[in-house]
Design a protein that fits this description.
Length: about 350
């Protein structure tokens, strides 16, 4: 068993014992919310981090998933698990239709177009009173229904349910990234023109990853609706997408661990700094700027870079180390001669 596998198992075991360590239900609630947002950020990461297309409509798809589950359970009266599946399918279907048009644009045109789409989704939710409830929102969304003897009414049981979906999301992302499909996405990110010349169907692959991204956004939105039990149009507002981007950039865009690391870190620090209210951005703003300047791949990318440097340094043979030391001392002597 590799060190990476041991570390991963240790992290999973640590996540499973957290409810026994944290007796404060408030922090358990915050951690569960972090897991939900992490699933949404993973959807954003597979598109922006591995394909190079930044979608600013992600908050809108998150809201579609939440409202789809809310309407199907509250107004239609469907079973929760059936409604959850349908909510993900509905979100992916709408994502497919929007992607057919959006993916004909590139770079900042794509970002601007998806930003407009996200805002339109917010307006539809906000103004369609007869369906969504408008500014009043939807109340009375049920918690996940029982699976045999297993109930999801307590905060601890919902924590484990969301943790299960997060681990499933990470596993799916890992399998995709380390497959031929994942390498195809990275090839499109590196050079779409070159990918086309070697026979990759870029439109087909971009549409696939866009729909996959919306699927995870819809899943996160549906889980959020059943966890909070009340939703309003604000969950689809454009400000939400910039929160998701912050989580992704701090954690590490284009990395597997980045979404969960950035989300848990920012949400936890944000809650700890509640007493500062609006002045919290005085901390987050400079921190985000410094990370983007010095470590564009975020905290996870920074740690990977340090590990690589340490590994390369450790891997050097005694002769290479002596040569490096001799070269450094020679440079110092030359500098002194020049100064003299």
């Amino acid at each position: 068993m590799t060190k990476k596998s041991i570390a991963l198992i240790a992290l999973i075991i640590g996540a499973m014992v957290i409810p026994f360590i944290i007796q404060n239900e408030y922090w358990l609630h915050i951690l569960t919310l972090s897991f939900i947002w992490s699933i949404a950020v993973y959807g954003l990461n597979i598109l922006a981090g591995y394909t190079g297309y930044l979608s600013l409509a992600h908050a809108g798809f998150f809201a579609i998933g939440a409202y789809a589950l809310g309407l199907l359970t509250v107004k239609v009266g469907l079973n929760y698990w059936v409604a959850l599946i349908l909510a993900c399918i509905i979100t992916s279907g709408i994502g497919f239709l929007i992607g057919l048009i959006a993916l004909r644009t590139r770079e900042h045109f794509f970002a601007i177009y998806t930003l407009c789409v996200g805002y339109v989704i917010y307006l539809v939710i906000d103004k369609w009173d007869s369906l969504t409830g408008g500014v009043r929102g939807l109340i009375g969304i049920p918690a996940p229904s029982n699976i045999g003897p297993i109930s999801f009414q307590s905060a601890t049981s919902q924590y484990y349910l969301i943790l299960f979906f997060l681990l499933a999301t990470v596993l799916v992302m890992y399998r995709i990234v380390h497959s031929l499909t994942g390498r195809t996405f990275i090839a499109i990110r590196n050079s779409e023109e070159l990918a086309q010349t070697i026979g990759i169907s870029t439109m087909k692959n971009k549409l696939t990853v866009f729909v996959l991204s919306t699927f995870f956004a819809g899943l996160a939105g549906a889980l959020y609706a059943s966890f909070i039990r009340f939703i309003g149009p604000d969950i689809g507002y454009t400000a939400i997408i910039f929160d998701l981007l912050t989580y992704l950039l701090v954690g590490g865009i284009g990395t597997l661990a980045g979404p969960v690391v950035g989300t848990i870190l920012i949400v936890s620090v944000s809650q700890s700094l509640q007493f500062l209210q609006d002045y919290r951005m005085l901390i987050f703003g400079p921190m985000l700027t410094l990370i983007i300047i010095f470590y564009p791949r975020g905290i996870v990318g920074m740690v990977s870079e340090w590990k690589m440097k340490w590994f390369n340094k450790k891997k050097k043979t005694p002769a290479e180390k002596w040569k490096s030391t001799y070269s450094d001392s020679k440079d110092v002597r030359e500098d002194k001669v020049k100064e003299g």
